[in-house]
């Protein structure tokens, strides 16, 4: 799998984050088997596809917390997290701060 294909997949993921993406959906879009896609993605990006998708979702959530007035619950559901509790747990693990505190802290600077 060439770098260009992974780049196309990354762009597609970024455009479809709100669809609750999973590895199966990305593999179906790419035309590659799930196993082959995950292996090639890890070789070229240095992280797993699942980790990449989760990180992109969290980055988008962080931006939404700053830029929008949507509730944390709405943001978590919009980005395909199974529950607000799951979102808060994963967000805190990734950013080392709760979504609420992140919003408060970052809005002070905007």
Write the layout of secondary structure elements.
Elements: H1 3-15, H2 23-30, H3 34-45, H4 49-67, H5 72-78, H6 84-95, H7 99-107
Helix pairs in contact: 4-7
What Rg is obtained from the alpha carbons, in whole angstroms?
15 Å
Biggest beta-sheet profile: none
Total discrete domains: 1
The beta-strand count equals: 0
**Shape descriptor:** elongated
Q: Supply the helix-strand structural class.
A: mainly alpha
Give the H and E element order: HHHHHHH
Q: Which percent band covers the strand fraction?
A: under 5%
Individual helix count: 7
CATH class: Mainly Alpha
Explain this structure to me?
- The protein is elongated and about 45 Å long.
- Helix 4 (49-67) crosses helix 7 (99-107).
- The model has no long low-confidence stretch (mean pLDDT 91).
- 15% of the residues are buried.
- The protein is mostly helical and 110 residues long.
- The N and C termini lie far apart (42 Å).
- 73% of the residues lie in helices and 0% in strands.
- It has a single domain (3-107), classed as Homeodomain-like (Arc Repressor Mutant, subunit A, Orthogonal Bundle), CATH 1.10.10.
Summarize the structure.
The chain has 110 residues and is an all-alpha fold.
Entry keywords:
elongated, single chain, Arc Repressor Mutant, subunit A, 110 residues, 73% helix, 0% strand, mainly alpha
């Amino acid at each position: 799998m060439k770098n260009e294909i992974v780049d196309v997949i990354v762009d597609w993921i970024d455009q479809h984050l709100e669809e609750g993406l999973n590895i199966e959906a990305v593999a179906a879009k790419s035309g590659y088997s799930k196993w082959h896609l995950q292996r090639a993605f890890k070789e070229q990006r240095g992280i797993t596809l699942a980790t990449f998708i989760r990180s992109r979702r969290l980055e988008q959530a962080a931006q939404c917390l700053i830029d929008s007035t949507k509730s944390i619950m709405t943001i978590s559901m919009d980005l395909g997290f199974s529950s607000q509790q799951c979102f808060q747990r994963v967000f805190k693990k990734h950013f080392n701060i709760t979504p609420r505190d992140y919003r408060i802290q970052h809005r002070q600077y905007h």
